[in-house]
Amino acid sequence: MASDPILVVGGTGKTGRQVVARLSALGVPVRVASRTAERRFDWTDEATWGPALEDVAGVYVAAPDEAETVPAFVARAADLGVGRLVLLSARGVDVPGYYGPDYHGAGGHLRNEEAVRASGVPWTILRPGWFAQNFSEGFFLDPVRAGEVRLAAGDGAAAFVDTGDIADVAVAALTEEGHAGEVYELSGPRALTLAEALAEIERVSGHAARYVAVPAEEFVKELVGQGWPQADAAMWTSVLAPVAAGREAVVADGVRRALGREATDFTEFTRAAADVWRSA
Ligand SMILES: NC(=O)c1ccc[n+]([C@@H]2O[C@H](COP(=O)([O-])OP(=O)(O)OC[C@H]3O[C@@H](n4cnc5c(N)ncnc54)[C@H](OP(=O)(O)O)[C@@H]3O)[C@@H](O)[C@H]2O)c1
User: Fold this and answer.
1) Residue whose CA is closest, atom 32 of ligand 1?
2) How far is it, in rounded angstroms, from Cα 246 to Cα 180?
3) What is the arithmetic mean of pLDDT over 200-218?
């Protein structure tokens, strides 16, 4: 039914929050789900899935990397007759070696993608690269505020994608025709090194932070020294590998293909987020 809501799983996260805002602005009913959202939803608690999925027209799925139950959830959604599935995945998941020499294209995202493709529900897959918002609300924010960003990213660059663009593509796929069966690789319109990204942040906010490239092995040791479990430290280092290798610098065509416009530039992102760093 046209008045059935769209379920946004991970609706409190970086992309989900913006999907919710955009759907609401369009007058589309939305059900926001996560552990802390109005509709309690937990990837580790199947009992929370059925109530969330009741009578929904479509689902946006943004799951944390550690969620292993996405395929089971997708099967449940299909059983309950949802009309559309839009899955947040990641760039390079089907490319052996993308996340370092030990990556053979068999990560959790690929498993989730396979479940969506096999669901029988019209689907759209989003494969974004590194988010620009990692600097303003994610992994890099505290280091930026502290004035030093240490990463195993070498001198590599990334075409950071604005999460607003990811949300725009998700909303198009959830509400318009023509996106079923599409895999959209999403990036920003140009690549910046970490040092260049921090220089842009300083230009708009006056807050200076420097980038320090740390060799991968040393970086893992540093994280373990800070109390990270070895496996998490290795995983975090491997997701930086495509930046170090220059793979994330390649500009993707997904935003243009899905929306018929250019992707949002990093400078525009920094202007919108400047207050976050000004207060540092
Ligand atoms: N960040 C990037 O640069 C990037 C790039 C490409 C792809 N991705 C992918 O994007 C996805 C989201 O990553 P993110 O780090 O940016 O996270 P995020 O969307 O900012 O936050 C994660 C969301 O998941 C919810 N969540 C966490 N644990 C949950 C649980 N057990 N049950 C239900 N909901 C749970 C959180 O809400 P509550 O805390 O309220 O539960 C939040 O809404 C990941 O799959 C990642 O691989 C990220």
Assistant:
1) 42
2) 31
3) 97
Ligand 1 close to Cβ of residue 156 (< 6 A):
no
Flag whether 198 is in a domain. Answer: no
Domain count, the chain: 1
Instruction: Report the candidate in 131, 123, 146 with the shortest Cα–Cα distance to residue 60.
Output: 123
Cα-to-centroid distance, 225 and ligand 1 (Å): 25
207 assigned to some structural domain: no
Tell me the residue range of the domain where 126 lies: 6-132+160-188+251-259
> Residue 239: in which H helix or E strand, if any?
helix 230-244
Rounded distance from Cα 64 to ligand 1 centre (Å): 4
b/e sequence 87-122, b meaning 16+ C-beta within 10 Å: bbbbbbbeeeebbbeebeeebbbeebbebbbebebb
Query: What is the distance between the alpha carbons of residues 68 and 43, in angstroms, rounded to a whole number?
Result: 8
Q: What is the CATH number of the domain that holds 59?
A: 3.40.50.720
pLDDT tens, 141-197? Answer: 999 999 999 999 999 999 999 999 999 999 999 999 999 999 999 999 999 999 999
Residue 249 Cβ < 6 Å to ligand 1:
no
Confidence class of residue 1 from pLDDT cuts 50, 70 and 90?
very low
Measured from the CA of 17, which atom of ligand 1 is nearest? 43
**229 located within any domain:** no
Q: Does residue 265 sit within a domain?
A: no
